[in-house]
Specification:
Blueprint (H helix, E strand, L loop, with lengths): L3 E5 L12 H14 L3 E6 L11 E3 L4 H15 L3 H16 L7 E6 L5 H9 L3 E4 L6 H15 L10 H11 L4 E4 L2 H8 L6 E4 L22 E6 L8 H12 L7 E6 L4 H10 L6 E5 L4 H6 L3 E4 L8 H8 L4 E4 L5 H4 L6 E4 L4 H13 L1 H16 L3 H15 L1
Parallel strand pairs: 1-2, 1-4, 2-3, 4-5, 5-6, 6-7, 8-9, 8-11, 9-10, 11-12, 12-13
Helix pairs in contact: 1-15, 2-3, 4-6, 8-13, 11-14
């Protein structure tokens, strides 16, 4: 057996195991530890939460500097994309000193680690990346093209040039990229990065609380949902273009669109300018109880131009709600298994969105069945099986 494995997550540990990619890191660390392959699990901050295996924050100062940075950003109204890069650079600075001599493989879900990766290569450490989002340059070009189409200019974490440059400085050190989602695998395979791209399909599903499915909606009503923090990549404008056409058909006045979540400034202005007179739209704003939101709708629209694995689609499935979702969303792979629990459409296609909303409205029983299919696909999926595949791959390289 070779050297051991360090697992790194940019996210932090919560009161149970962690959220998002931190949950994947936690589960993988637990599996590797049982195989006596784990050095430790490095997270951004840890609080008082302990683990049955070796784990520690990237710095014992991280809770303090994250708190101070939050205060600074809020006071001076710093854009969130700059805040994100500052956090990543601080994480990278501290993480480089956490590398251990006995480490043979550095496994990370965060690509923005130029200093850490550079030092890892000096120590002869193999770097394996499992990104939760498609390749950053691909996202950047997609957003730039959409900006031109819409005649606006938006900047977010995926289109901030300084952050993209940091990614490009980092990715050159990576030895292997695990494409866990079709969109991730394809976008990394179509680049000139020297890293080997390995396809191990799997999903980072959250720990959803059990729900009771009670679909007793008024037969004379139909509710379409959309929920996200809206940036240009979420494709809301294509859904609203479809909705504008649905508004023009008298037969469908009893369909209501519910839009939940916040919206960045450029998109907010664009929506206000182009869709001010839409009818039958409820702007929900912040949604405190996403499960209740899902239970109140009949179908979820996910018109994203690109999305690794939108959790809203998975939560809709957990609540037996089918999705109309684009083929650039990684979640389609899971929701389309067995009997499909979603309708998959091309990106930037308002006609397809309209067609499927009206189909769902006119075929209520099929829509309910699709929702139950989605729930079955979620309930029968084992994230641990995916974690085992990743652990097997790392063990072979150790």
């Amino acid at each position: 057996m070779g050297k051991k494995i360090q697992v790194v997550s940019f996210q932090s540990l919560s009161a149970t195991s962690g959220a998002g990619m931190a949950r994947l890191g936690y589960m993988l660390s637990d599996t590797l530890d049982k195989r006596k392959l784990l050095v430790n699990f490095i997270v951004h901050s840890k609080g008082k939460f302990d683990t049955p295996f070796a784990s520690l924050p990237v710095s014992f100062l991280s809770r303090f500097y994250l708190w101070a940075l939050n205060k600074f950003v809020n006071f001076f109204n710093i854009p969130s994309y700059k805040f994100r890069l500052w956090q990543e650079m601080l994480f990278d600075w501290f993480c480089q000193w956490r590398l251990q001599k006995e480490t043979g493989i550095l496994f990370t879900t965060n690509a923005f680690m130029h200093r850490t990766f550079k030092r890892a290569k000096k120590l002869g450490i193999v770097i394996v990346l499992l990104p939760g989002t498609p390749e950053e340059n691909y996202i950047y070009e997609l957003v730039a093209e959409e900006n031109r189409r819409m005649g606006i200019k938006t900047t977010d974490a995926y289109t901030y040039k300084k952050r993209l440059n940091y990614f490009n400085k980092s990715i050159g050190y990576v030895d292997a990229v695990i494409g866990a989602l079709p969109t991730v695998y394809t976008s990394y395979s179509n680049t000139e990065h020297k890293a080997k791209v390995v396809q191990l399909l799997g999903h980072m599903t959250p720990d959803f609380k059990p729900v009771t499915i009670n679909k007793t909606h008024n037969k004379d009503e139909f509710h379409v949902g959309y929920i996200a923090h809206t940036v240009i990549l979420k494709g809301l404008h294509y859904l609203l273009d479809a909705w504008k056409e649905i508004n023009q058909e008298p037969a469908y006045t009893n369909i209501t669109l519910h839009i939940g979540g916040g919206m960045d400034g450029a998109m907010q202005q664009y929506v206000a300018t182009h869709y001010a007179n839409l009818k039958n739209v409820v702007w929900e704003g912040h949604v405190a109880d996403s499960s209740a939101f899902m239970q109140s709708i009949d179908v979820l629209a996910v018109p994203s131009l690109i999305d690794g694995a939108p959790m809203t689609a998975l939560e809709a499935a957990h609540n037996a709600v089918p999705s109309i979702i684009t083929d650039h969303c990684g979640a389609t792979e899971l929701l389309s298994r067995n009997n499909a629990g979603c309708w998959v459409i091309p990106i930037r296609d308002k006609d397809a969105i309209k067609e499927h909303i009206l189909y769902a409205f006119n075929n209520r029983e099929t829509t309910r069945t699709m929702g139950m299919n989605a729930k079955y696909n979620m309930d029968s999926y084992s994230m641990q099986d995916f974690i085992t595949q990743v652990a097997d791959y790392l063990e072979q390289k150790a």
